[in-house]
C-alpha cells in the first residue's frame, strides 16, 4: 500500500535523521527491486513511441537544431559508449548528459507529449530522454530501462500530487531533477545512499522561476525540462564518485520548502509506494492528441464539436462574447486571468500562442480541429476574422471546475469547463466538457493503435518508411532488448534533412 510521508521544515538545531528525509525516502523507492507489471510496461512503450513522434516533428525546428549542435560538439565521455541524438545516425554519438539535453528539447518543443496535473503540473515523459541516454552509454538492457522509466514516472508524479510549485512561481522542472535522478539510480542499480545524494542535488540545481512560461514565452520553454534531465545525469555522476549534496534539501531551515515554497511553517504529505509495491503512476498520466498546453486539449475537442453543430459561430460578426468557465489553473495560466496581453497578440510567439486558450479556442471553433504546424503560423494567427473572434474570448474561474481539477478521484477529475457563447441575435449556446477525447475516460481514449498512428503522422514527413517500421518493431520489444538493441532506440532522419537547415555557431 502507498505510504504517506509527512514533510515539514526543521530548524538547524532539530534532529532529522537522513533516513527520515524525503530525498532518502525517494531513494528507497528507487532502489526497491520490485517487478514492473505488464500494463505498466505496455504504457512505457506507448510513451517512448509518443516521445519519438513529437521529437520527429521537431527535428528541423530552431531550438532542436541548436541543441543538437551543442550535443554533437561534446564527444563521448570516457566512462561508456555514448548516446544517440534524435535524427542523427547511430554512429553520431554524444556524451550522455548532452544527448539527454538535445533529445529532451526535441521531445518538449511542440508541447505535444504526455501530461499529469495535480497539485502541480508536469510532463513526466521528460524523464525518458535522460534515462535512455544513460542506458545507451552504460550498456543497460531493455529490462533495466523499463525499471528506470517506471521509477522516473512514479517519483515525479508523486511529487506533483503533493507539492505545488507554480503557486510560488517556481517552474515545474524542480520535480524532474529528483525524478530523473531517481530513475537513473534504478536503471544503474545504485544503493539508497548514492541515489539520495543524486536526488538532493537534482532538486538543488533545478529550482528556477516560472518566468519561462509567463508573458512572451521564449524558446527556453523547451529547454527547461531538458536542462533538468541533464542536471540529473550530472548529479548521479557526482554522487557515484562519493560527492555529497545539500541536506536536508527539502526540509532544511534554508531549504527549498522554507524559502522557495510554502515557508518555514509549511508541511506536505507526499505519497510514495511502500516497500515491495509496484510502481504504477504512469497509468494515471495521459497524452495529448493536440499540440497545445494540456488544459487546452478538452477545449479543442469541445470547439470542434461546436464547429460541427453551430457553424455560424465561426464568424465573429455573429458572436457577442465567449466565456470559458473553468478551473483556477486554466484561467490564470493559459486564460485571460494570466493578465498577459501577449495571449491576445497576433504577433506572439508560437510558445505563447500554445499557452493562450482564447487563441486556441477561437481557431478550433473556426477550423473544426487543430494542427501542430498550421494552427500556429503567423498567417493563421493574424487572420482578421480570427483576431476579431479571439478578442471576444475570455475565461472565468468556476469553483466547481477548480474543485474537480484538484480532485483525487479519477472519475471526477476534470480539465475542461463550461462555455457560454452569446450571439448577436440574442441566443446563447452553452456546452461543457470534462476531459479530452483522448483521455482514458474520454470519448476516444488513446491506446497503442492511437500512439502508433500519431507517430506515423508526425514521422512520415521526416523519416524513411523503413525507419518508421524499424523503430516501431524495436520499441514494441522493449523489455526483451539487449544492450546493443537499446543503443538503436532512436530515430534517424531522411537523408539530407538535417543538413537542409543551417546549424548556428556558438561557443563549443
UniProtKB/TrEMBL annotation:
InterPro entries: MmgE/PrpD_sf, MmgE/PrpD_sf_1, MmgE/PrpD_sf_2, MmgE_PrpD, MmgE_PrpD_C, MmgE_PrpD_N. Residues 21-267 form the MmgE/PrpD N-terminal domain. This is MmgE/PrpD family protein. Residues 290-478 form the MmgE/PrpD C-terminal domain. The lineage of its organism: Bacteria, Bacillati, Actinomycetota, Actinomycetes, Micrococcales. It comes from the Bacteria. It holds the Pfam family MmgE_PrpD_N. Transmembrane segments: none annotated.
Amino acid at each position: 500500500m502507498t505510504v504517506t510521508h509527512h514533510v515539514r521544515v526543521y530548524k538547524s538545531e532539530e534532529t532529522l535523521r537522513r533516513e527520515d528525509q524525503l530525498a532518502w525516502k525517494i531513494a528507497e523507492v528507487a532502489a526497491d527491486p520490485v517487478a514492473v507489471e505488464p500494463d505498466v510496461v505496455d504504457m512505457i512503450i506507448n510513451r517512448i513511441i509518443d516521445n519519438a513522434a513529437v521529437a520527429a516533428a521537431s527535428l528541423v525546428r530552431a531550438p532542436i537544431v541548436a541543441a543538437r549542435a551543442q550535443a554533437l560538439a561534446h564527444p563521448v565521455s570516457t566512462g561508456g559508449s555514448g548516446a544517440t541524438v534524435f535524427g542523427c545516425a547511430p554512429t553520431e554519438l554524444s556524451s550522455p548528459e548532452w544527448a539527454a539535453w538535445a533529445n529532451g528539447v526535441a521531445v518538449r518543443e511542440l508541447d505535444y507529449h504526455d501530461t499529469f496535473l495535480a497539485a502541480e503540473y508536469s510532463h513526466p515523459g521528460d524523464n525518458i530522454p535522460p534515462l535512455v541516454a544513460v542506458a545507451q552509454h552504460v550498456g543497460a538492457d531493455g529490462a533495466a530501462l523499463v525499471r528506470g522509466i517506471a521509477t522516473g514516472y512514479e517519483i515525479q508524479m508523486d511529487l506533483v500530487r503533493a507539492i505545488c510549485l507554480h503557486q510560488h512561481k517556481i517552474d515545474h522542472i524542480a520535480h524532474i531533477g529528483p525524478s530523473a535522478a531517481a530513475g537513473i539510480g534504478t536503471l544503474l542499480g545504485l544503493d539508497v545512499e548514492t541515489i539520495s545524494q543524486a536526488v538532493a542535488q537534482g532538486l538543488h540545481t533545478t529550482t528556477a522561476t516560472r518566468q519561462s512560461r509567463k508573458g512572451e514565452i521564449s524558446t527556453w520553454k523547451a529547454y527547461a525540462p531538458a536542462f533538468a534531465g541533464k542536471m540529473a545525469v550530472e548529479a548521479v555522476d557526482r554522487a557515484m564518485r562519493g560527492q555529497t549534496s545539500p541536506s536536508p534539501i527539502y526540509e532544511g531551515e534554508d531549504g527549498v520548502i522554507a524559502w522557495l515554497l510554502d515557508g518555514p511553517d509549511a508541511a506536505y504529505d507526499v505519497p510514495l509506494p511502500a516497500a515491495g509495491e509496484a510502481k504504477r503512476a504512469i497509468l494515471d498520466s495521459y497524452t495529448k492528441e493536440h499540440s497545445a498546453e494540456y488544459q487546452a486539449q478538452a477545449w479543442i475537442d469541445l470547439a470542434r464539436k461546436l464547429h460541427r453543430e453551430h457553424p455560424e459561430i465561426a464568424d465573429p460578426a455573429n458572436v457577442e462574447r465567449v466565456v470559458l468557465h473553468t478551473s483556477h489553473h486554466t484561467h490564470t495560466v493559459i486564460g485571460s486571468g494570466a493578465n498577459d496581453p501577449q495571449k491576445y497578440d497576433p504577433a506572439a510567439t508560437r510558445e505563447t500562442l500554445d499557452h493562450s486558450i482564447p487563441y486556441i479556442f477561437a481557431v478550433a471553433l473556426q477550423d473544426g480541429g487543430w494542427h501542430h504546424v498550421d494552427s500556429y503560423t503567423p498567417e493563421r494567427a493574424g487572420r482578421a476574422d480570427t483576431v476579431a473572434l479571439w478578442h471576444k474570448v475570455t475565461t472565468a474561474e468556476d469553483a466547481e471546475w477548480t474543485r474537480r481539477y484538484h480532485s483525487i478521484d479519477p472519475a471526477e477529475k476534470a480539465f475542461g469547463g463550461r462555455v457560454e457563447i452569446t450571439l448577436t441575435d440574442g441566443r446563447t449556446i452553452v456546452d461543457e466538457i470534462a476531459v479530452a477525447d483522448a483521455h482514458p475516460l474520454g470519448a476516444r481514449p488513446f491506446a497503442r493503435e492511437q500512439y502508433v498512428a500519431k507517430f506515423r503522422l508526425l514521422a512520415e514527413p521526416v523519416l524513411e518508411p523503413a525507419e518508421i517500421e524499424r523503430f516501431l518493431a524495436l520499441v514494441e520489444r522493449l523489455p526483451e532488448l539487449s544492450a546493443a538493441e537499446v543503443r538503436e532506440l532512436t530515430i534517424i532522419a531522411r537523408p539530407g534533412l538535417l543538413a537542409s537547415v543551417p546549424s548556428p555557431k556558438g561557443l563549443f
